[in-house]
Amino acid sequence: MLRILRNYGNVTWRHVGRKTQMVYFGDKYPHKEKFYHETEEILKRHPRLKIALCHMYFLSADIDKAANILDTYPNTNFDLAPGVEYLYNMSRNRDEWHDFFIKYQDRIFFGTDIMELYHVKASMNRVWLVRNFLESDEEFYTPKALKAF
């Protein structure tokens, strides 16, 4: 399948990082590092594959690793669908992330994770959240439980 996507130039999306009850149940959910390893193996085997890694690949606490992924795999992109932990992490290191966004601006997709189940107001709030993060210099505050990300 990846070979077909690569050959036709289609972009595929990969969601890595958070637990989801849609796929795994109980204690069987693999650690995030396992997903990183699997994803990077795919990228090594299919260097021409165009891929977007959702939620900034959950690397908001590791800007060096984020840059390394984009530098190493030139057909790889990130999306900005909001994860509250990444807004918090990036706002704490705003200058470095600003430079990151400038350098990789053609490799970062605007995203919101808006789905049909959201009402229009909730959808617009998500758009505002991402735009406000990109266009302001305020720090985003999150619950203490999320600061571990």
Describe it:
By secondary structure, the protein is α/β, with parallel strands linked by helices. It is about 45% helix and about 10% strand. The chain has one domain (about 1-149). The protein has a four-stranded parallel β-sheet with strand order 1-2-3-4. The longest helix is centred in the C-terminal third of the chain and has 16 residues, at about 120-135. The model is unreliable at about 20-25 and about 145-149 (pLDDT under 50).
Throw out a few tags for this protein.
disordered C terminus, single chain, alpha/beta, 149 residues
- Biggest sheet strand order reads 1-2-3-4
State the shape: globular
Q: Provide the low-confidence segments as ranges.
A: 19-25, 145-149
Quaternary state of this entry equals single chain
Number of helices: 6
Residue fraction in strands:
5-15%
What class would the helix/strand composition place it in?
A: alpha/beta
